Amino acid sequence: MSDITPSQTVGPYFAYGLAPHSRCHWQPSPHYDSKETVGANLITPDATGQKIHIEGSVLDGDGKPINDAMIEIWQADSQGRYAHARGEKPRPNAKFTGFGRSATDKAGVYSFDTVKPGVVPGPDGKPQAPHIVFCIYSRGMLRQVYTRLYFSDEASNAADPILTLVPADRRVTLIAHKEMRGELAVYRFDIRVQGENETVFFDI
Amino acid sequence: MTFIYPRESLSVYPKHLSPEYKSTVKRSPSKPLIIVPHTLSELTGPAFGHDAVQEGDNDLTKQHKGEPLGERIIVHGHVYDEDKRPVADTLVEIWQANACGRYVHNVDQHPAPLDPNFTGAGRTVTDKNGHYKFVTVKPGAYPWGNHPNAWRPNHIHFSVFGQSFVSRLVTQMYFPGDPLFPFDPIFNSVTDEKARLRMVSSFDLENTIPDWALCFRFDIVLRGREQTPTHTEKH
């Protein structure tokens, strides 16, 4: 039996502590204004590559929006490099962390501004298609769930070593669909926690 | 040093669906999770420098003009990996109700007073020994709607990072001897008693400061151990 500390739900009131300036409907009054340690805009002045916007709804088993969820994302930079602390070479875009956090708003919608990640090394030397790791927390979730966002305009998805482990009929739940909003590429990625078209979650 | 994250360690976690906690019924995956190997995307994670926090962010009693009401306490401990090695330089965030059991969040409608001198959020980064420390007030118990006369035990929410994105932990720290333990479906969603008690802090007389504040110790163990021939994970 492992000695790790068990997980507990993030509960309904995390916003003022973890995501005070996010989309959440907790509005910090001047009196209780809180600091933001991690935000939903990952774009730093030194970030390279294509700037993109990601947004989507988080839905429960009845298809109702979850208005008190928190999403965290972890991604490589446009060159496929993770800003990991240990053993990495200095990168020219050292300020780009690849980590972001968004709460959902009243309509259950989260969003991020970031850059499109590059191809990342995978198992057995096979490349992984560009992707972003998603981690979802909310009231009613006693432990976080992990999923991945893949991009609809990437031919390399077909050979991705993780995506190909997913039953073919469920892969669609991991693909974010691109639409142009003026000059900005917006990727729509809804997360269905349960039920019909349930998003694929990974046991990692 | 190469870290591995055996899935077996997660056996102490609550099940996604724990019907006694009603909100899990519609918010838990119904299809089996898909087992995937740990790639670079899972084995890496965000790094935080000490610039992620500011001096004083770990003292929740000094964020306003006056001192908050309630019982001043010190909460400290170490963050470890599964080999009991300290996890240095990792971000620890907390949030909690005030001494009356009220959160500043506007969704919280519990008719207990807000405290103009208490927000209830703090953060710090562990030192080279994996140690963290907060000064705060003891949070109050509060009612919730899960079942008739449901009350949450006193608790402080914790968010911790660790070596990689898969060592990420969000949990709750409880206080020793709470009479509400037997009735709380969130606490009891951890069915293994030893594991459940790892979420309960211990009273720390040695670090209690005379004439000033009681101290509670809460050590946190995150996923991750050094890869050795006997610990090779099978995918």
CATH class of chain A: Mainly Beta
Tell me the β content of chain A.
25-35%
Give the low-pLDDT segments of chain B.
Answer: none
Q: What is the mean predicted local confidence, pLDDT of chain A?
A: 93
Profile the largest sheet of chain B: 5 strands, mixed
Most extensive contact = A-B, 78 and 86 residues
Low-confidence stretches of chain A: none
The backbone outline of chain A, from C-alpha atoms, is globular
How many helices of chain B? The count is 2
Radius of gyration of chain B using CA atoms only: 19 Å
Structural class of chain A, by secondary structure, is: mainly beta
Q: Summarize the helix and strand pattern of chain A as letters.
A: HEEEEEEEEEEEE
Please estimate the helix content of chain A: under 10%
For the biggest sheet of chain A, the summary is: 9 strands, mixed
Tally of structural domains of chain B: 1
Mean pLDDT of chain B: 94
The CATH architecture assignment of chain B turns out to be: Sandwich
Radius of gyration of chain A: 17 Å
What is the CATH homology-level superfamily of chain A?
A: Aromatic compound dioxygenase
Would you kindly provide a written description of the structure presented here, covering whatever features stand out?
The complex is a heterodimer of chains A (204) and B (235). By secondary structure, chain A is mainly beta. Chain A has one domain (15-26, 34-192): Sandwich (Protocatechuate 3,4-Dioxygenase, subunit A), CATH 2.60.130.10. Helix content of chain A is 2%, strand content 30%. Chain A is built from 1 helix and 12 strands, in the order αββββββββββββ. The longest helix of chain A is centred in the N-terminal third of the chain and has 4 residues, at 15-18. The model of chain A has no long low-confidence stretch (mean pLDDT 93). Chain B has 2 helices and 14 strands; from the N terminus they run E-E-H-E-E-E-E-E-E-E-E-H-E-E-E-E. Chain B has one domain (3-231): Sandwich (Protocatechuate 3,4-Dioxygenase, subunit A), CATH 2.60.130. The model of chain B has no long low-confidence stretch (mean pLDDT 94). Chain B starts with a strand and ends in a 9-residue tail after the last strand. In chain B, strands 3, 6, 11, 12 and 13 form a 5-stranded mixed sheet that branches. Chain B has a 4-stranded antiparallel sheet with strand order 5-4-9-10, with no helix packed on it. A two-stranded antiparallel ribbon of chain B has the order 1-14. In chain B, a hairpin with an 8-residue loop joins strand 9 and strand 10 (169-174). Chain B is mainly beta and 235 residues long. At the A-B interface, helix 1, strand 5, strand 7, strand 8 and strand 12 of A face strand 2, helix 1, strand 4, strand 5 and strand 10 of B. Strand 12 (202-203) of chain A pairs parallel with strand 2 (34-35) of chain B, so a sheet runs across the interface.
